[in-house]
Amino acid sequence: MTRCRWCSSDPIYQHYHDHEWGVPEYDAQRLFEKLLLDGFQAGLSWITILKKRERYRQVYRGFDVSFMAAQSDADLQLLMQDPGIIRNRLKIHAARQNARAWLVLAAHGDPAAWLWQFVGGRPLVNHFTSHAEVPAITPEAKAMSKALKQAGFSFVGPTICYAFMQATGMVMDHTLDCFRYGELSGGPAAVEQQ
Predict the structure, then answer these.
(1) pLDDT in tens, 47-85
(2) CA 44 to CA 170: how far, in whole Å?
(3) What is the 3-state secondary structure of 97-131?
(4) Separation CA 41–CA 188 (nearest Å)
């Protein structure tokens, strides 16, 4: 079975590639989780985050936005001592700030629809033959990053936003030789990219 070249032989990575990456996600709670996890990834490998994802789910109570937004500085200091997560002060504080910003977004409408607007509400399907062709940043990711920053989010640069868009199926970047390409590229709601 041929997978995207970035996917290693690690079973956790393969499961993520085969069942999650590039699959359109419209659930606001899951989008929130993935946005924060992509922020935690900044400067690290994705497999590092995947291996810590269950611990993140525990300490953030399933990425409960209200719980995270209400965390005190003392709560964040305790998180800094948890070896099961990335113990980066800026990222831990950003997670609380992002939860607060998410609540503001949610007070004005559906955050999922707001995020999906950057791709016109449906997946953008690319047709890359190799991983080398896949961009790190696109105009859509730049627009999302700018809007998220204006809404009070941090750790949402354009590279992080594009990784988030790939992970949540807003863009479908499985390469042509990957078995998931055929499974995810033919949806009637998708928009063909050149």
Answers:
(1) 999 999 999 999 999 999 999 999 999 999 999 999 999
(2) 22
(3) HHHHHHHHHHHCCCHHHHHHHHHCCCCEECCCCCH
(4) 32
Residue 191 has φ and ψ, to the nearest 5°, of -110, 125
Residue 169, CB-side half-sphere exposure with 13 Å CA sphere: 26
Tokens of 98: 């992002």
CA 145/CA 42 separation, integer angstroms: 14
State how far Cα 20 lies from the chain centre: 11
pLDDT in tens, 156-179: 999 999 999 999 999 999 999 999
The structure tokens 């992509």 sit at: 38
Please tell me whether residue 192 adopts helix, strand or coil conformation: strand
Give per-residue burial for 97-127: e unless 16+ CB within 10 Å, then b: ebbbbbeebbeeeebbebbbebbeeebbbbe
Backbone dihedral region of 176: left (phi > 0), alpha (psi from -120 to 50 degrees) or beta? alpha
